[in-house]
Write a structure and sequence with these properties.
Endonuclease Iii, domain 2, mainly alpha, Endonuclease III, domain 1, 56% helix
């Protein structure tokens, strides 16, 4: 149930980030899935530099599922943890081709069967590719900003997601996570949040606290 404070935060965020959306470049659900897998422990900016060449060579799950593992590793090397990520790309693509008719699944349960896909990745794909609000994306920015704003006291992403799902109307789940990501990058940075210039400072319990 959305309370008065949460409604106020949503209103302020709407003014600051009205068009917040996923910052990973993609043309379809498959590209978004692959980009999100690559974004683990890596910046979206870096992923966006890597994916054009990757998708040019392997444009769909059928092609990527048949790709030599070494070739995938070289293409995604700069995103970090490239061996594990390359294997996830190959195995997830094979599963999409063999088990889902070449289409990225539209349910949380089915997405979670793919290698390299946990709730965060599944929520990104469902929300940004299909417009399905199955949950709230919780990445490092959302985790940090939600805690500072007093929207959760939890540190486990699954528990943070549950708190946010309870606090927000379902219609805001997709947009809200993207807005918090943008806010975490632009203002509420991990080491030095810019509290004096924060559009949310009137409702933030952490204002003025150095972290």
């Amino acid at each position: 149930m959305e309370d008065k404070k949460t409604a106020g935060l949503v209103s302020l965020l709407k003014k600051a980030y009205p068009a917040a959306e996923c910052s990973l470049d993609h043309k379809d659900a498959f590209q978004l899935l692959i980009a999100t897998i690559l974004s683990a422990q890596c910046t979206d900016e870096r992923v966006n530099k890597v994916t054009p060449a990757l998708f040019k060579k392997y444009p769909g799950p059928a092609e990527m599922g048949k790709a030599p593992l070494g070739a995938l590793e070289e293409l995604v090397r700069s995103t970090g943890f490239y061996k594990n990520k390359a294997l996830s790309l190959k195995e997830a693509s094979k599963a999409i081709t063999e088990n889902f008719g070449g289409e990225v699944p539209r349910t949380m349960e089915e997405l979670l069967t793919l290698r390299g896909v946990a709730r965060k990745t599944a929520n990104v794909v469902l929300g940004s590719a299909y417009g399905i609000a199955a949950g709230v994306v919780v990445d490092t920015h959302v985790k940090r900003v939600a805690f500072r704003l007093g929207l959760t006291k939890e540190t486990d992403p699954a528990k943070i997601e549950r708190d946010l799902m309870k606090a927000l109307p379902k219609s805001e789940w997709i947009w809200f996570a993207h807005a918090l990501v943008l806010h975490g990058r632009a203002v509420c940075a991990a080491r030095k949040p810019d509290c004096p210039h924060c559009p949310l400072n009137e409702l933030c319990p952490k204002l003025g606290i150095k972290e």
